[in-house]
Structure formats: C-alpha cells, structure tokens
What we know:
single chain; 326 residues; alpha/beta; eight-stranded mixed beta sheet; elongated
Amino acid sequence: MSRSVTSKHDVTVIGLGPMGRAMASAFLGKGYRVTVWNRTADKADALTGAGAHRAATVHDALAAGELVVLSLTDHRAMYAVLESATEALPGKVLVNLGSDTPENARSAARWVSGHGARYLTGGVQASPPDIGQPGSSTFYSGPKEVFDAHREALEVLTGTDYRGEDPGLAALYYQVGMDLFWTVVLGWLHALALADAHGVSAEEILPSASYVMAGMPDFLAFYTQRIDAGEYPGDVERLSMGAASVDHVLQTARDAGVDTSLPTAVLEIFRRGTAAGRADDSVTSLIEVLRSGTRSATPPSGPPTASGACTASAVGPGLPTSGSDR
C-alpha cells in the first residue's frame, strides 16, 4: 500500500546492497520516512526493524513519495527494475547513485523524462561506512532546480558537488576518479610484486611508495596549466627519458619473473609518442596520443526495448557484485 500523504521528508531507496542499506539508514537517522524495496526482500529486514517501510512492489515504492534514490549496479539494472512500473514515474524525481558511463547517464535521463519524471545523476565518492559521515562527497548533475529542491535530503548522505545541467557530467567526474584510482592501485600492486620477487615486503616498500605518491599533487599542479594550454616543453623532463625509464621497469619485471603486461602497455604508449616526434617534449605530451585513441565499443546499456528489459550487469561500481543491488 502506498502512503496517501507525502512530504519532503519522504524518501524511497531502491536497491539494498551495502550502499543502499547505508543510505536508507542515514535517512532514518535524520528522521526521514523511508520506503525501501529490493529484489531480494529479506535485505530490508534490518531496515524495517529500524522503522523503514518495506514496499511490496516497485510500483508501491515509487508511489510512496516524490524523491526516489536508486542504488543499483548500473543503468541496465535501473531499466530492469523500473520497466514494470513506468506508470508510477510521472512526477517523481529519480536520483541515480549507481555507476555507469556519461553517455548511458544521458540516455537514462531521456528515458526517465519520457515517462514524466525528472532525473539526477550522482557519482558517490564514498564507501558504505562513510555514508552519513562528514568529509565525503557526491558529484551531481542534471536540472539545477531539481538539485536545489532536494539538496537538503541529498546532503544527509554526503556533501554535494553539483557539476552542471548535463546529466552525463556527474558520471564523467566519477569515472575520471575511477580511472585514476584503479590505474594507481594496479601500478602499486605491480610494484609490490616486483619488490616481493626480490624478498622485499609490502611493509618495507611502503615508505618509498608513499614518498612517490606524496609528490603527485605537486606534479599535477605544475603541469595542469601547461596541458590546458597545449604546451609540452621538455624543460623539466623529456619523453625519451621516460621511455627509457619504463623500459628499465619492464626489464626488471622480466628478470624477476613478474608479469610484464602492465609495463609493456605503458611502454607501447611511450613509443607511440616518440614515433609521433615528441621525444624531446614532456611526458605530458602523451595526452595527445591518448586523445587520438580509437573509441572502443561499449556494451549496450540503454533503455529496454519492446522485446523486454535489459538484464542487470554483473559488474558494479568499484568491485564486482551480483544482481542489481549496489
């Protein structure tokens, strides 16, 4: 049964993985009337015990209030969940806090708008234990008036960082962060594998690894204006030097019997830059090589077709999950 009277302190959370449960708990802690729905109903047990209302169907969950927070794996999961209840979408505000690409976020916004609802994309920069705690933040994009109208509720979860009207921008900022994060993590793990092959533990390598990472903000700050200006003078370092350095990393890995696929891929990009005549330019000139890369095909994640809904992806934001719950 849906509630007959709703207010700005009503919120629905759809998707009760660890993130969705943390979000629902944060709303409950701030006195919101929270309706929850999940494909696996027993994931709501602890929340209902804390005062949440468990909706029997997606339709009932949508009918409970204007603001609907989606904590699902990706947009495929959103379509799979909402396709059966599109008649309940008019007048709703959907805030999608799952992970997906900017293009898929834009497609989702059009699909939601076509069903009479409004849509905000979110990119959460926090883990479940950080939800409701100070210091974390979420990127948002979409209609400014929609964001402003629900900012108070969204700030129950994390701080808010509104990036603009384009619904793809929050997804872009989030994926840029993930691009950096996973690349750095993989580089760190490869470095630890190199150290381990020589009998050096992760704990022993931590100080030197931390020293390298501590210098990165200054490195980024120094080169940012140059990159925006399209200027790559080799006055501090040169691509040819960088290529030699990466080659030494590759040889060190090969000699130690450590997997060489990562430094091989890095060296290939450096060599492409050198072949393009940038040997005497800064390593940052490689952005021109990366900009010219061919666009790879993306698995379909658009709205459901007449033949049926898209199925939920098994790969979620950050770590793999199963099903549509985030």
